[in-house]
Amino acid sequence: MGYKSLMSFVTDPATIATTLEAGIALARREDAHLDVCCLGVDHTQPGYFYAGAPAMIYQETLDRARAEAEALEKDVRRRLEREEIRWGADSAVVQIGGLASLVGLRARFSDLVIQPKPYGEGRTPDAEAVVEAALFEGKAPVLVLPENGLPAELGQRIAVAWNQSDEALVAVRRALPMLMAAAHVDIVIVNPPAQGPERSDPGGMLTQMLARHGVRAEVSVIAKTLPRVSDVLCRHVRDRDADMLVMGAYGHSRFREAILGGATRHMLEIASVPVLMAH
Predict the structure, then answer these.
(1) Which of 34, 69, 83, 243 is deepest in the core (most CB within 10 A)?
(2) Full residue range of the structural domain in which residue 64 is found
């Protein structure tokens, strides 16, 4: 059991280096195949024709997106050709309204999607849309990279955010290859409910399941001493010197434009270690 099909989507030349270095390192470590899809995104609103705007304007935006995608693919190929790993690279042009469908289709046949942090200075809305689409449309686990990329020894000390939810359990199952290879796994529970199904033994059943896979895990039950759960988790990650966090991704109603839940979004904004998420 492992990650044999890795996938990354590139929409911004500024993130190529961080994304590819992480993808190459994981492909080499897992003996996996790395696919990179370079996207040129047309941000004109589909389905509308603005009064007075000739059709050639729409063709011009598509041509610009195609040129951007081809330039990204050229840079990606130039970097990957220096590596002795199995890889593939292609480019695609998509209107912003169809981004989720394209990314979801590609992501759903991948074992792990590797993406840069979607929030921060210089990040575009495309970065957030790609992460959301991979999680919610593609149903794929996504490894979100911090600004400084992967640590030298990823997954030696892993923290697992556990709250008994379906999303958290899916994330744990998708992270099993890394958990099994880790030297230390810390199951972190913040303010467990007094009347929950695990009230007498928080994290006990999860620890038992992991132990049967050879995972050495311990449970940390901590109080919510900061306003946000994400702040508490990040502080615990720093205190335990963890190099990776596993957590479920939570979504708001589709009536909202932003899909990622508040806790999920805030975690991605402040995390200083890679975060493996699944929904």
Answers:
(1) 34
(2) 5-145
